[in-house]
Amino acid sequence: MPLMRPAFTNDSFETVLRLWRRLASKGGRRQLRELATVDAYNRARDITERFASTVARWIEEQGEVFVVLRYLRAAGAKDYAICRSLKAFGAICETVPKGTDIVVFREPQLPLRGKVTEDFIQSATNAVPQGAEYMLAVWEPPSETGMARRVTMGVSHAELRADLEECPGILAAVGVCPRFCDPDNDQMISASKGGVDGPR
Questions:
Q1: What 3-state DSSP class applies to 1?
Q2: What are phi and psi of 188, to 5 degrees?
Q3: Which neighbouring-strand residues pair with 82?
Q4: Which end of the chain is more exposed for a tag (fewer CB within 10 A), N or C?
Q5: What is the pLDDT of residues 136-145, one digit of tens each?
Q6: Count helices and strands in the chain by DSSP H and E runs
Q7: SS3 breakdown of the chain: % helix, strand, coil, rounded to 5?
Q8: C-alpha span between 186 and 161 (Å, rounded)
Q9: What does the alpha-carbon distance between residue 81 and residue 149 come to, in Å, rounded to a whole number?
Q10: Residue 191: helix, strand or coil by DSSP?
Q11: 149-171 pLDDT tens trace
Q12: pLDDT digit string (tens) for 54-86?
């Protein structure tokens, strides 16, 4: 059976050639990268009244919420905060860029808190099982929104001790790393500012 070839007119060929030349140019390569990273819009993922009211209720119940900010197309960059008021949480939502994934935990996270001393370091290694991923967040100088100034993670007591020894006398919080990549559940909810989703 002879090979069937698609009907390809001269006009079609010229159209493809023009497209290839445009994409091969410097500006075209930029357009191609943008096409390869098209973000999706999902109205249900936007910050809604229901989302905000749930966060407000959790703050009222628990006194705080733990917030993870996962930035859109930012090579995995994240920020973390402990918000003790809806005003602080609202300020964060207003300042983060469009497409930021805002993850909120109902229960307090990083439960071991205080100024870093040798006793604190010992308590931290006792609180986090060897091999479990830990998170260490530093809050000095404090911010009005509760944003952590510095966050480190690791999986061994040696790493945890080394991280803590770098910030003696500084206010810190330590615990098992929150599972912020899990699907939403009754203990964690998320929204994407502007309803925009994409690589994070």
A1: coil
A2: -155, 130
A3: 66
A4: N
A5: 999 888 888 8
A6: 6, 10
A7: 40, 25, 40
A8: 33
A9: 9
A10: strand
A11: 999 999 999 999 999 999 999 99
A12: 999 999 999 999 999 999 988 899 999 999 999
In this predicted structure, the answer to whether residue 19 has a pLDDT above a threshold of 60 is no
DSSP for 116-145, written as a single string? --HHHHHHHHHHS-TTS-EEEEE--S--TT
CA 113 to CA 154: how far, in whole Å? 18
CA quadruple 100, 103, 109, 110: dihedral, nearest 10: -20
pLDDT range class, residue 198, cuts 50, 70, 90 = confident
CA proximity to 118, closest of 172, 176, 161, 56:
161
SS3 for 176-187, per residue?
ECCCCCCCCECC
Supply the pTM of this predicted model.
0.79
Please report how the helices 49-62 and 86-95 are oriented relative to each other, as an axis angle in degrees rounded to 10.
Answer: 140
**Rounded-to-integer distance, Cα 26 and Cα 200, Å:** 26
